[in-house]
Design goal:
The protein is an alpha+beta fold and 248 residues long. The protein has two domains: 160 residues, Aminopeptidase (3-Layer(aba) Sandwich), CATH 3.40.630.30; 82 residues, Glutaredoxin. The protein contains seven helices and 13 strands. The model has no long low-confidence stretch (mean pLDDT 94).
């Protein structure tokens, strides 16, 4: 398998967004705009030359859009291999590249979000454990921070206090999200419409800066849904799933 690194020169012509193929799709354009702005922050997006879900996205932790303290670490936004590309060792390739690249840049280690049991849109804990990662912190909602240090005695990354106990004051359904995930550009307007049609209080909060993300009341900033102050899920919801959730 050959891999391609996304740059400012090739980002418009390369396929990057999961199974979405057209640059005219709002999901693709929003994701590419977000990526383009992060490249100057040291973000790396490495993908297979084949179309499909086979890529890794990582960034120096000080520039990551998550509320963590991880000095001199690299943070993995997403490592995703699925469909026909699974089972060929490509996830190993992508992770090994991240490790090698991070070491060459003088990093202390790498870290990533997961959980005790596999959750949608988070790294598989079984894979992480197999690759030598271990849990270094955990929030009240079960979201865990895993790390892979490059040497013994490395300081462990940790969640900021704002994310350790996910809770907000606002009532109703409140969704925090970023443009890192392409699906948000399509589905959040749909949820807003469905909620309005069903007279359900719903407030979507678009996190638009690194500073906002690093001080968010949730470990997962790409998508974090609360209801009546309590954290519910990081799973991207379709209109059907949302209607089921609200009992419609």
């Amino acid at each position: 398998m050959n891999y391609i690194t996304i740059t400012k020169d090739n980002i418009q012509k390369e396929h990057i967004c999961c199974a979405i193929s057209s640059n005219n799709d709002i999901q693709v354009s929003s994701k590419k705009a977000w990526l383009f702005e992060r490249l100057d922050d040291g973000l790396v997006f490495l993908k297979s030359e084949q179309r499909g879900k086979c890529f890794i996205e990582y960034i120096p932790a000080e520039n990551a859009w998550v509320p963590i303290i991880a000095k001199d670490y690299m943070y993995i936004d997403c490592l995703w291999v699925s469909g026909s590309l699974k089972g060929h060792g490509y996830a190993d390739d992508l992770l090994n590249h991240c490790i090698s690249d991070s070491q060459s840049k003088g990093k202390t280690g790498i870290c990533i979000l997961s959980s005790a049991k596999k959750k949608p849109f988070l790294a598989d804990p079984k894979f992480l454990a197999y690759k030598g990662f271990s849990v270094c912190d955990e929030a009240d909602n079960g979201i865990q921070l895993w790390y892979y240090p490059f040497h013994e005695g490395a300081q462990k990354p940790a969640f900021k206090e704002c994310a350790r106990h996910p809770h907000i004051e606002e009532k109703g359904y409140v969704l925090y999200y970023t443009s890192q995930c392409p699906f948000n550009a399509k589905y959040i307007p749909i949820l807003e419409t469905v909620a309005k049609e069903n007279h359900v209080p719903f407030h979507a909060i678009h996190i638009e800066t690194k500073e906002e993300a690093q001080n968010a009341p949730t470990p997962v900033t790409t998508y974090a849904l609360f209801h009546n102050s309590v954290y519910l899920t990081n799973e991207e919801l379709s209109d059907k799933k949302f209607l089921k959730m609200i009992g419609k």
